[in-house]
Amino acid sequence: MTPVIARTRAELDAARAALPGTLALVPTMGALHEGHRSLMRRGRAAADAVVVSVFVNPLQFGAGEDLDRYPRTFDADLAVCEQEGVDVVFAPTVREMYPTEPQVTLKAGPMGERVEGAARPGHFDGMLTVVMKLFQLVRPDAAIFGEKDAQQLALVRRMVADLNVPVEVVGAPTVREPDGLALSSRNRYLADADRVTATALSRALRAGAEAAGSGPDAVRKAASAVLAAAAGDEPPLRLDYLVLVDPATFEEVAADHAGPAVLAVAGRVGGTHLIDNVPLSFPDRTA
Ligand code: PAF
Known about the structure:
Blueprint: E1 4-6, H1 9-17, E2 23-28, H2 34-46, E3 49-54, H3 74-83, E4 88-90, H4 94-97, H5 116-119, H6 123-138, E5 142-146, H7 150-162, E6 168-172, H8 192-210, H9 216-230, E7 237-245, E8 259-269, E9 272-282
Helix pairs in contact: 6-7, 8-9
The site of pantoate (PAF) has 10 residues, from strand 2 and helix 6.
């Protein structure tokens, strides 16, 4: 079945009115890959109908970031949505989403200024603003986000809780290449040699996870060693951050931390910004 394509809010309203039962939204910026397919399947399991939005949101890109060269592959995206049985593809223009320069926008708060937010100031404010707009326009029962963007997922959950947004936020596991590289629309920027260096991110996370039994400091040390070695690769990995944080606040956890944590890493390979993370859990050693 070919999905209905809605380019305007009016077309979206008409398409939505024709859908039966509950609705899941999969928000995307296009350049769809296997990871997005898994979100669509999760959406299908969560609701009767699935809407995929395809919109490269200028508000979440900073000066000097890749807004202009971000891959726009609408025909291929549509084919993916068709194969996955998506009901509606909402693909508005920038003018349709932002008919006038927005004056009132969301602020992601302290969590939005940490970690990825410190590396990309304003990114999470723009992301939350467009996600809230999509929630208002699509009015889904559930929305599916990838766990690869762990801080984004935590912030959307926080927004929904703080602002009483009636949407169930569902996280879906990261999908990886056989060599461990997390799938990302930005992977298509990587040359062959970049691609080899980029696997250092997932190798660092794996090394960290394997050290989890010895506590947070051992995790940081094991992951750092892999990243330090990759700094000498050709091309080199330029590390933006490696953090071990509380998944609810994205603040660094202490050496005696017990409970859940996220080991998150970001770096640049040949000019491409890549992020990855793994969830961990530390036992209470005082018991
Ligand atoms: O994860 C993304 O692709 C984007 O941040 C999102 C959620 C579609 C908002 O533009």
